[in-house]
């Protein structure tokens, strides 16, 4: 399995990378989604622009209102970050559940979300976290709300001439009380169903809830039926049970050789219940 | 493109194609055939080596990505002719049968034990998520890792 030929370009800064990036080129970060796709010749870029040595996009910074994760931060470094463990535990938790040790040592958050695999873990967590995606182009930076970022099957709001530079996670009460659970495909360790939940409570009553799924449909999505059903109520087992019945309401559920549509929809309810019950 | 990499302590400079993977570079350009290619899709872990001290799957890295880095392969693990404790323990505890997965197992675990020097059996089994063995059923691999961890922290 050998990729098609391409030119290898190395960038020392985002500005340099943007200047190098041609129309049929691809950005190389950790390469753990892109290189396998290139070996299968699903991707045949003219050139790769390697941004993996740009340290400025690898930091995780704890700011006033948000934690900013550099797009080039590896899953391993995110999983060990103490600020994230405290302010958004599901973000650190999911990072430690992706792939395996070797994959986590190289794979990056920016690369994963740019690829937007429908079974990847990050999209569900970032949707539940109400994250902002910071994107650079020759025309400057723009911030995209995560609700507008994931568009469909391997499709995002990212344009060909743009590079994701960071992801902002709000330090909200909901994110401080959050978790992620998945039913894992045992060979690839992708999510057959993954559920991220972030819930803020006021005297035992749910004041804010964001619940999101990956692996269930052609793109990660927020389960607004569950969110609305939870709001204003308590987190009793009965209430959670009723709310989670809406896990796949209005969603086209995937079916493949790992799980049928019916089984996946069932798993979505089960994993929503398990995740929410932890909070 | 030209790359310069420190492999097992020795600096090498080679001309490679952009599409050359690190596993191919090690095996074909440097004749370090201890790094095995199993699935070639980053599933099986047979190709695991260290890049700057961290275990990675060399079939999913391009050689260009390790330009300027330090790479360690199974051939570089023994020091001064003395086997690494993991190598001794895999032999002692019969942690291999056909041996195809062994270099990858040992390179993964030598990094893992750096971050977790005395793991529980459960933690060891979790750490092996990305390394497949089709012979042993993992039982003796886990026993070998436990044994090596004890030797190394003694």
From TrEMBL, chain A:
It comes from the Bacteria. Residues 1-174 form the FAD-binding PCMH-type domain. Keywords: FAD, Flavoprotein, Oxidoreductase. SMART domains: CO_deh_flav_C. GO terms for molecular function: FAD binding; oxidoreductase activity. The keyword Aminoacyl-tRNA synthetase does not apply. InterPro entries: CO_DH_flav_C, CO_DH_flav_C_dom_sf, Diverse_Substr_Oxidored, FAD-bd_PCMH, FAD-bd_PCMH-like_sf, FAD-bd_PCMH_sub1, FAD-bd_PCMH_sub2, Mopterin_DH_FAD-bd. This is Carbon monoxide dehydrogenase. It comes from Portibacter lacus.
Automatic annotation (TrEMBL), chain B:
This is Carbon monoxide dehydrogenase. Residues 1-77 form the 2Fe-2S ferredoxin-type domain. GO terms for molecular function: 2 iron, 2 sulfur cluster binding; metal ion binding; oxidoreductase activity. It comes from the Bacteria. Keywords: 2Fe-2S, Iron, Iron-sulfur, Metal-binding, Oxidoreductase. It comes from Portibacter lacus. Pfam families: Fer2 (PF00111), Fer2_2 (PF01799). PANTHER family: OXIDOREDUCTASE WITH IRON-SULFUR SUBUNIT.
């Amino acid at each position: 399995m050998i990729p098609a030929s391409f030119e290898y370009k190395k960038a020392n800064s985002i500005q340099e990378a943007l200047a190098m990036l041609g129309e049929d080129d691809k950005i190389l970060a950790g390469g753990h989604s892109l290189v396998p796709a290139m070996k299968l010749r699903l991707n045949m870029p003219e050139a790769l622009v390697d941004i993996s040595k740009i340290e400025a996009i690898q930091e995780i910074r704890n700011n006033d209102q948000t934690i900013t994760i550099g797009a080039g931060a590896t899953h391993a470094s995110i999983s060990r970050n103490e600020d994230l463990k405290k302010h958004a535990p599901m973000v650190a938790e999911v990072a430690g559940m992706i792939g395996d040790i070797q994959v986590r040592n190289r794979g990056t958050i920016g690369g994963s979300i740019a690829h937007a695999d429908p079974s990847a873990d990050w999209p569900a967590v970032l949707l539940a976290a109400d994250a902002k995606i910071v994107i650079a182009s020759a025309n400057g930076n723009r911030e995209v709300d995560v609700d507008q970022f994931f568009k469909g099957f391997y499709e995002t709001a990212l344009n060909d001439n743009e590079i994701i530079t960071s992801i902002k996670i709000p330090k909200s009460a909901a994110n401080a009380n959050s978790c992620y659970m998945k039913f894992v495909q045992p060979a690839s360790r992708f999510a057959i169903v993954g559920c991220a939940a972030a819930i803020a409570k006021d005297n035992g009553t749910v004041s804010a809830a964001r619940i999101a799924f990956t692996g269930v449909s052609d793109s990660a999505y927020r389960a607004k039926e569950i969110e609305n059903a939870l709001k204003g109520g308590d987190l009793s087992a009965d209430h959670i049970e009723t709310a989670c019945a809406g896990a796949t309401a209005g969603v086209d559920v995937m079916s493949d050789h790992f799980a049928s549509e019916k089984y996946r929809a069932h798993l979505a309810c089960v994993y929503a219940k398990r995740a929410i019950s932890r909070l | 493109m030209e790359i310069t990499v420190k492999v097992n302590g020795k600096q090498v400079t080679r001309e490679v194609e952009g599409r050359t993977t690190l596993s191919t570079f090690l095996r074909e350009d440097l004749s370090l055939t201890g790094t095995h290619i199993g699935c070639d899709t980053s599933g099986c872990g047979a190709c695991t080596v260290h890049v700057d001290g961290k275990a990675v799957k060399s079939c999913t890295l391009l050689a260009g990505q390790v330009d300027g880095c330090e790479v360690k392969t199974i051939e570089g693990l023994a020091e001064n002719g003395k086997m690494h404790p993991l190598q001794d323990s895999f032999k002692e505890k019969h942690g291999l049968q056909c041996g195809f997965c062994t270099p990858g197992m040992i390179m993964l675990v030598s990094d893992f034990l750096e971050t977790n020097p005395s793991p529980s059996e459960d933690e060891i089994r979790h750490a092996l998520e990305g390394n497949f063995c089709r012979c042993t059923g993992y039982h003796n691999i886990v026993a070998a890792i436990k044994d090596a961890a004890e030797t190394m922290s003694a």
